[in-house]
Structure formats: structure tokens, C-alpha cells
Amino acid sequence: MAYSEKVIDHYENPRNVGSFDKGDESVGTGMVGAPACGDVMKLQIKVNPDTGVIEDARFKTYGCGSAIASSSLVTEWVKGKTLDEAAALKNSEIAQELALPPVKIHCSILAEDAIKAAVSDYKAKHGVAAAANA
Amino acid sequence: MEMTPHFPIYLDYGATTPVDPRVVDAMIPWLREHFGNAASRSHAWGWEAEEAVERARGQVADLIGADPREIVWTSGATESTNLALKGAAQFYKGKGKHLVTWKTEHKAVLDTMRELERQGFEVTYLDVQEDGLVNLDAFKAALRSDTVLVSVLFVNNEIGVIQDVAAIGAICRENGTLLHVDAAQATGRVEIDVKNLPVDLMSMTAHKTYGPKGVGALYVRRKPRVRLEAQIHGGGHERGMRSGTLPTHQIVGMGEAFRIIKLEMDEVNAKARELQKRLLDGLKDIEQVFINGSLEHRVPQNLNISFNYVEGESLIMGIKGLAVSSGSACTSASLEPSYVLRALGRSDELAHSSLRMTIGRFTTEEEIDYAISTIRENVARLRELSPLWEMYQDGIDISTIQWAAH
């Protein structure tokens, strides 16, 4: 299978790899997928509590190149966005940006799930109703 | 002696082998001036084609200790398997309608068995042991008085384990049951002598043994005689078992490939064993590495390894100088983890993290050394990216986590 140049770029130079302290009040963590399905994504956001803006993001992904690229791309995109803006991100935008073939669309869906889960985790920590992912 | 390997490096001889240049040379004249039809009895073009076909039949028979009259030409191991299983099951259905095989068989067997189930046969799919080998006691227990046919893979295509065909065949004989052996990956890698091996039907192919694609053979025992119902009807070629004009050039190629491997097999296997050891030694000390299938009962050409917490497809993308496969070529287009590894009892994540590397006659030490270094580098890099590796390092047992399947 041929990968798009953008997938290869993110796979070879993944952005924002790493982890934040899960217990940190300013951090929201989303972990989605399952080893049985061959994909697990962990996506974390660091939020400015005063503005509600995502200041930084990190990811780790077990999965194919497209899964790695999707999560890497999302960490770039969510920086500077508000929680609601980030939670509104659509998998189709990820798939389009990375030119994912149909068999890899699930990678972009997983990345969307991961950012939504991270936003809900942050909101839950701060007692905000997690409406975005209800 | 060249020290720098050519890229990409081919470590997928289990998918197919290059055609030996001597084989190509032997084939060409049968595409050019000697174009005759082996079934033409009335002129020299036909006679010489028939002679070439019969010479090749002798060469294929020779490698496995068979009589040339026991060799039927087909288009490859898949067709041979279809003819053997459907042909024998249908011919002997008056004796019984129960068939036995194993869960780690090639799809050519499993899918044909499914078709036979649709035709009213009953099939038992047995588990293998954790090392990929047949459990003989469980096999014996599965045989019934109406079991007419058993099918076993001589050398597994994914994990390279060699089954004890002699023992399986002896059990079949005791029960009056026919045995079909899929030897696609075994010819030229394992000594085969059907004079001493209790097999009744054996499928072979040319392209895994340095011959061309598109030609194979089925061994059909004469003493005691095994009968088959034909699956392809027409001019009654191959004693009625497989109609269709014989592809002389392909057949000549298979004969020449089998003649050469008979002469060079010991040397080829000794060299492969050295390279296999070199590859294994270079990788086995990586943390959380698992060899899939028995190392002891295994062809020297195959190494199948799971690198835990690294997904196989991403690893293959990383080691781009290497042509290898994740699972087998037949299933790697799907997103399912290898059913063969699942049948060994491997966890899903280990099954998703496997690499099949298959060595061949043209593999060099330099290529193996390069493979080792690029695999080590990429496993380390991808583990830095892996949340599962991070959890493992933190002492979290990922099998205790409730994952949401997607």
C-alpha cells in the first residue's frame, strides 16, 4: 500500500510525542482503541485554566503509520484552540489532510475519539458537564 | 565480493522466490521455436513437447522419490489442493463424509474445506500446540470410522514449522484414512521420500522453489492406488485427472527447478541455517521479543518474531529497506491479525506485532546484518511512540484493562 507524503512525514517526524503527568489539573487525557484491533492512541492536552485554550498537546500511538500520522496531526491542530473548538474537530478533516485511503479511515475516527476523550477528561476534572462527548 | 547490500533487501522468500537464471534459460526455447502442444501426436512439434513434459515429470518425481506416473500437472499448489481435497472427498464419499485438518493450515486448504462443508461434508478443525506442531493424541482422538481424508501443511507458510508427517501418516493408515500434504513450502527445504512417507496426495508448486509461478503438481499415490474425481473437465489430459493443454515452458521450468534443488539442497539449507542463526542472534536479546513457532522443528529459511507493543504494519513501514511481511502475503491485505498466530494462543497484540522474515538462496550476511540494525532501530523508535510500551514500563498489565473495541 502506498502512503501519502503527509502520512510518511508525520510517521518519520512525529510531532509532540510524549506524555504529560496524568494527575496534573491542567491536563486532559484520552486513551482510545484496543490492542486487539491493532490501534491504541493516547492523546493529552494541556489547558490554560483561565482562558480554556489548549496550550500544548502530546500523543503516543500503537498502530499503523496512518494511525500515528492522524494522532500526530491532531496534536498540531488542537494547539491554540478552545476546548469546544477542539472537540468539534471532524475525522473527515483529518482523513482529507492526510489523504487516507478508505481502509485507513478508522485511524482518523480514532484520532477524533481521542481528542474528544481528552477534552471530556479535562472537563470532568473541572466539574464541567462533559456535554461534548455525551 | 560486494559489501553494500542492494536495496530493498528481499526477505520474503516465503511469498515467492526469484526464478533461478538456469531455469529461465531452460524455459525460453519452449516459448520460442519449440512451441508445440504436448498432446499433438501427429508431428514432431508435439513429440518433442511431450518428451520435455515427461522429462520434467521425472525430475519432479525424483525430488520426492515418486514414480513419474504419480505426478499430475496443475497451475500451482492451490489448484493441487483443490483437486486433492475435492477430488478425493467426492470420490470416496460413499465410505464416509468426515474430514480432518488444523486451524493453522493455508487458506487454500481451509477455504476448500469450507466449500466441502457446503457440499455436505463434515470437517473437524483441530488446534495445534503452542509451538505450532500437531498434537498427535488429539489427532488420533479426532479420527472416526467415517473419516475419509486428512489434510496437513508439511511446512507452515507463516511460522515455518515442520509437521511430523510420518507420524500423522501412520495414524491415518491405521484408520484407513487418506492423507493429503500441502508441501508448497517444503520442497527443497525438507527431505521428502514418498516411498517411506505414508502420504497419499501431496501438493507442490514451482514458485517457492526457484521455479516460475503458474505451475504446480499433485502427487497421487499409485500403490495403493488413490482415486480422484476430476475438477476440471475437457480433453482428458493427465489421465483424466486434470484437463487442459499443458504449458510446456512452465512445466520445463518446474522440472529444472526441482532438478537443481535436489542437487543443491544440502548446501542451500546449510547456508540458510547459518543466516537464520545470525538473524536470530541479532534480534533475540531485544526486550519483549517472542519467536512464533517451534525453533527446533522449523525450516532454516523462516523466522517469525513478535516485537511486543510495536504494531507490525508500522514496523514494516519503518524498515523500508527490507521486503518482509506481517503475517502471510495472502492475509496481509486485511486488518485482521494473523489467524495462525492466534491459533498458537498468542495474544492479539502479539499477533498484531509479528514480522515474517524468510531467507533464500540469494540472501547474504550483509543483508542480514542490515536487517538486524534497521529492525532494532525501528523497534526502539516505535516503542518510544507506543502507549502500550509506556504502560508496560510503568508495570501496568495491559491485559487487565477494559479496552473498548472499535
Secondary structure blueprint with pairings:
The complex is a heterodimer of chains A (134) and B (406).
Chain A: H1 5-12, E1 27-34, E2 39-48, E3 53-62, H2 65-78, H3 83-87, H4 91-98, H5 105-125
Antiparallel strand pairs in A: 1-2, 2-3
Chain B: E1 9-10, H1 21-27, H2 44-64, E2 71-74, H3 77-91, E3 98-102, H4 107-118, E4 122-126, H5 136-142, E5 147-153, H6 165-175, E6 178-182, E7 201-205, E8 216-220, H7 248-283, E9 289-291, E10 302-307, H8 312-318, E11 322-323, H9 339-343, H10 348-351, E12 354-358, H11 365-384, H12 387-393
Parallel strand pairs in B: 1-11, 3-4, 3-5, 5-6, 6-7
Antiparallel strand pairs in B: 2-8, 7-8, 9-10, 10-12
Helix pairs in contact in B: 1-7, 2-7, 3-4, 7-11
Would you mind describing this structure in some detail?
The complex is a heterodimer of chains A (134) and B (406). By secondary structure, chain A is an alpha+beta fold. Chain A has a 3-stranded antiparallel β-sheet. The longest helix of chain A is centred in the C-terminal third of the chain and has 21 residues. Chain A is globular and about 45 Å long. The C terminus of chain A is likely disordered. Chain B is of the alpha/beta class and 406 residues long. Helix content of chain B is 37%, strand content 13%. Chain B has 12 helices and 12 strands. In chain B, helix 7 packs across helix 11. About 2% of the residues of chain B have low confidence. The interface between A and B is medium-sized, with 30 and 25 residues.
Strand content of chain A: 15-25%
Helix-strand category of chain A: alpha+beta
Largest sheet of chain B: 7 strands, mixed
Q: Name the strands of the widest sheet of chain A in spatial order.
A: 1-2-3
Report the strand count of chain A.
Answer: 3
Subunit organisation of the chains: heterodimer
Question: N-to-C terminal Cα separation of chain A, in Å?
Answer: 36 Å
Secondary-structure element sequence of chain B? EHHEHEHEHEHEEEHEEHEHHEHH
